[in-house]
Every structure is written in structure tokens, then in C-alpha cells.
Design a protein that fits this description.
Layout: H1 5-18, E1 23-27, H2 30-41, E2 45-51, E3 58-63, E4 77-79, E5 88-89, E6 103-108, E7 111-114, H3 115-121, E8 125-131
Antiparallel strand pairs: 1-3, 2-3, 4-8, 5-8, 6-7, 6-8
Length: 132
């Protein structure tokens, strides 16, 4: 049994990217679907597909690489808020990732959004991870 599904999600993407895989399959959930949409909208993954089976569903993610150098688009995925130590930030204290070049994924009352959207909408929440 997996105690931290978000960490599992990030680790599967990190490991597949390090192994230069084209696709990665992840067991689905609502928060993972929202995080996948954010990664796609921000240009960190090439494509994704949600498939429903009899259980929780599967998320298929096509990873993105630089065509000439084959360097992954995601260089680092870092879990911030863990089940043992939650990390919250107000709108004024939203973290800047890599001096604004990366993103933080934040779970707010308005849904799962990036740190830039949270600051623009003036909402705080739980900082799930940093991506760059």
C-alpha cells in the first residue's frame, strides 16, 4: 500500500525521465489529473491521456525532451509538503522557484494551481511540489 500517492506520482515521472522513457503510466486520482494538466499547460510534458478502468483509472503521460540534445524538459521535481510535514504559504509568501523560471504546484481553495496563478488570484494554500 502506498502512503504518499503524490510522491509516487513525482517519483514515477522523475525515474521515467532519467531513463529517457517516452511514456509513463501512473494510477489516477483527481489531484494527479489536475497536476498533469498543469504540467502540460506549462510545457513540461508533451501529452497526456486519462483512461478509466474499473478501479481508479490510469494516467498516461508522454514525456518531453529537447529534440537536438535529448535533455528532459523536467530537470527537477521536488516534493515540498509531505504527509508528516505540511507546508503552507499565503498569497504574499508564495515561493519563487528558480527565480521565477520554475513553478510551484499549490493546492488552494480554488483548486490545484501554480504559484503564479495563486499570487494573481490572491489565495494561499499547500505547496505540493516545485518543478523546473
Amino acid at each position: 500500500m502506498n502512503t504518499d500517492p503524490i510522491a509516487d506520482y513525482l517519483t514515477r515521472i522523475r525515474n521515467a525521465s532519467a531513463a529517457r522513457k517516452k511514456m509513463v503510466e501512473i494510477p489516477g486520482s483527481n489531484i494527479k489529473r489536475e497536476m498533469t494538466k498543469i504540467l502540460f499547460d506549462q510545457g513540461y510534458i508533451r501529452d497526456f491521456k486519462f483512461e478509466d478502468d474499473n478501479k481508479q483509472g490510469i494516467i498516461r503521460i508522454a514525456l518531453k525532451y529537447n529534440p537536438s540534445t535529448k535533455v528532459p524538459a523536467i530537470t527537477k521535481l521536488q516534493r515540498i509538503s509531505t504527509p508528516g510535514l505540511r507546508s503552507y504559504a499565503s498569497a504574499s509568501e508564495m515561493p519563487r522557484v528558480l527565480n521565477g523560471l520554475g513553478i510551484a504546484i499549490v493546492s488552494t481553495s480554488k483548486g490545484v494551481i501554480t504559484n503564479k496563478e495563486a499570487k494573481r488570484e490572491n489565495v494561499g494554500g499547500e505547496v505540493i511540489c516545485h518543478v523546473y
